Amino acid sequence: MKKLHSHNLVEIDFKEIIFEKRKCLDKDGSAVDGLYNAWIILNNPKQFNSYTTAAIKEIILAFRTASNDRSVVAVVLTAVGDKAFCTGGNTKEYAEYYSGNPQEYSQYMRLFNDMVSAILMCEKPVICRVNGMRIGGGQEIGMACDFTIATDLARFGQAGPKHGSAPIGGATDFLPLFVGIERAMSSLTLCEPWSAHQAYYYGVITDIAPALKVDGKFIVNPMVVTDRITDEYGKIVFGSMKTGEALAKAKEIVASASIDLAMLDKIVNNLIAKILHTFPNCMNKTISEVRKFKLEHWDKNKEGSREWLALNMMSEAKAGFKAFNDGPKDNREVDFIKLRQLLAEGHEWNEELHEIISPQFQKVMA
Question: Which of 12, 299, 345, 358 is the most buried (most CB within 10 A)?
Fold first, then answer.
């Protein structure tokens, strides 16, 4: 057998993320000799698996490595723990380094763009295994994947306009393709998260797995409405959070239950087993053709979005990220009404304005 070339740009020891090759399983659960799945695992659970600059670099190289590996059948993008898949960029790094430094954030966003593109260009099917919250940039890299399997405890959404940014790292490009303009507009502007059941119902994800166990048996997430019933206005409330006494009782059940991701892994492996029984080149061509709908918008907008996001670090992003990072635990948003009032009066964006609207300043004044 002839010696094969390596097409990797560099060889790397991963430190910020976890990169593993796991045996590919057949439909009966048996391991297949010589075939693997590449697991790219975000590893920052204390900060809800947000990605730092260093982690982004490794994610890019991990996708390149997995894409070039002849023995890899599929790629699984996931994270450690059961609280969060990813909440986007690391707000501590944003607040303490990038805020007020548009030239630096511009370079960071070039790396972010390369991370999204690395997912979209991977020559293997990419499955997002959602083990918890998928918010902000986490939602964006998740939507760049080809399939999504989530626990029914997961939440999906954006945080941009609430915290000083715009969801233009892929969300405005991808989400309308999944759910249409109206639902996308609501999610992207109001930043109200969807439950896993809502995301499945709207077509954002491929499948849901139960994760709560009571007395050794899996149960459906009790905090959400899982029947397609209507509210007093006749609107379907399937997947919405319960309210009042029903929510309080559901929280008691959750508190007493244990979390087990075995069913999530089973559904992920079952999906890959189905992929295993297809022609690999035909599979990759089909996936690349479907990805074109995402790439059409992503490639058209990513550079302009990067430039705008960089400049925004001088004003709203600076205020929003510092408020989230430095504000008290129960108040991490700026005073939006005061901000709008000051801007209506023609107040310039300066340190005085930042202080007036920040929750840190409000706490000192109180």
Answer: 358
